[in-house]
Amino acid sequence: MAEKPLFLITNDDGVASRGLRQLAVTAAEFGDVVVMAPDHNASGLSTSITCNRPLRARLVEESGNIKYHSCDGTPADCVKLGLEYFCPRTPSMVLSGINFGTNASINIIYSGTMGAVLEANLNGLPAVGFSLLNHSPEADFEACVPTLRHIIGGVLQQPLPQGTSLNVNIPRLPAEAIKGIRICRQARAAWTDSLERRTDPIGRPYWWMTGKFVCDDKQDCSDELALAEGFVSVVPIRTDFTDYAAMAQMKHLEI
Amino acid sequence: MAEKPLFLITNDDGVASRGLRQLAVTAAEFGDVVVMAPDHNASGLSTSITCNRPLRARLVEESGNIKYHSCDGTPADCVKLGLEYFCPRTPSMVLSGINFGTNASINIIYSGTMGAVLEANLNGLPAVGFSLLNHSPEADFEACVPTLRHIIGGVLQQPLPQGTSLNVNIPRLPAEAIKGIRICRQARAAWTDSLERRTDPIGRPYWWMTGKFVCDDKQDCSDELALAEGFVSVVPIRTDFTDYAAMAQMKHLEI
């Protein structure tokens, strides 16, 4: 008999996040679950790793076939630590999320949720990140359940191509209003006016991260188009940054 | 008359790093230089950004046509802050480094040096990251100068394709022993045994980041091959994570 599937789950909103809990409970319908998630909010940490201090980790809670652990590192640290020390066997899949807020388009590059997925990808494991387009503390993660079941079940049944992971974004809609699921490409976009300058009470400047998301790439299978139309977007992603098309154009730099 | 080139320069080793100083001085041969670099070591921070606290920045030093600033953020923060508040005009190019140690192959994904390059790329600017394959405090950054001049001059003369940035790695060799410069692709590789478990004096476990770099992809234009043969590797990179080849294979997940 085939081994029961094992899921390693993390996120960047922290182990107490409702989004992570929803993902863990839904994955537990398919197999055993080991959670290793940050003990704090680790949003915007990308694929960063902790090199200059050691990490601590602990078991937070056991509930049925789910073990919740936390550590004081980044989402990518969580994947490394979970794989090497807390999973009783090699996971069938690494899952990350459900994130509060979008990781579609270029937001993938800043995302701790997706940093964990990229880390799992580098480890040669199937990996999927889930994000809901809703920052509100009242975000309805239950509306994501049909999507989670479809994607997790689908990837268990038909493995991802080697080297491919998935960036899944779910529109802010009741489950029955979601129109379907679309395979997409990452939309081109930019953040402008990223930092707001303020002055402290003694006259010195400081800057807060803010920004306007500017995207007019809502065509030809872009994830932003699918989401705007009410579909779940699924972008197959890879960790090879090479711009192959540009290689031939750069030969003049060789000596 | 064309405007004098302006370079925005950052790194992840901090504003006091000798590698950054060498890069700034060499770029200043071509135009004006604004440095905005972390005031601390920010290695391993990838493309992370600071969302939960404000940033501080200050002018550290002026030297000829170079202004050195530092801030308490990440390399990506430095690029945003430098572009929006410290550059007197849009830079001709964003440069990052020279990093102590390799950012070839998959190391790009953890690198703060390359995180800054990816941030500049998202801002639509030409950007180049430089790394020297030497972690020693005595690393010889002067041996990098001919490479810096060739790449910076070359990119000024013939602009990079839109959306393309460069990841430049320089072997640990005297300048005269470097065999040349090769356009490469990112080698496939993995880090194994990432974390070492230790026990503190009262018996509790903690984990240090460590790891073994495993790469047997030293063929077909890989950056690791070029470096092993004594060449500088130049990988054209992009910020589109989409695995286009996998899109057609994922259609069964659509509903």
Features:
homodimer; 255 residues; two-stranded antiparallel sheet; 6 helices; 22% helix
Question: Topology of this structure?
Answer:
2 copies of one chain form a homodimer.
Chain A: E1 6-10, H1 18-27, E2 32-38, E3 57-63, E4 66-71, H2 75-86, E5 93-100, H3 112-122, E6 127-132, H4 145-157, E7 165-170, E8 180-183, E9 190-192, E10 195-199, E11 205-209, E12 212-214, H5 223-228, E13 231-237, H6 244-247
Parallel strand pairs in A: 1-2, 1-5, 2-4, 5-6, 6-7, 8-13
Antiparallel strand pairs in A: 3-4, 7-13, 9-12, 10-11
Helix pairs in contact in A: 1-4, 2-3
Structure, briefly:
The first copy, chain A, has 255 residues and is an alpha/beta fold.
Task: Describe what you observe in this structure.
The structure is a homodimer of 255-residue chains. Chain A has helices at residues 18-27, 75-86, 112-122, 145-157, 223-228, 244-247, and strands spanning 6-10, 32-38, 57-63, 66-71, 93-100, 127-132, 165-170, 180-183, 190-192, 195-199, 205-209, 212-214, 231-237. By secondary structure, chain A is of the alpha/beta class. In chain A, helix 1 crosses helix 4 and helix 2 (75-86) packs across helix 3 (112-122). The N and C termini of chain A lie far apart (58 Å). The mean pLDDT of chain A is 96. At the A-B interface, helix 2, helix 3, helix 4, strand 8 and strand 10 of A face helix 2, helix 3, helix 4, strand 8 and strand 10 of B.
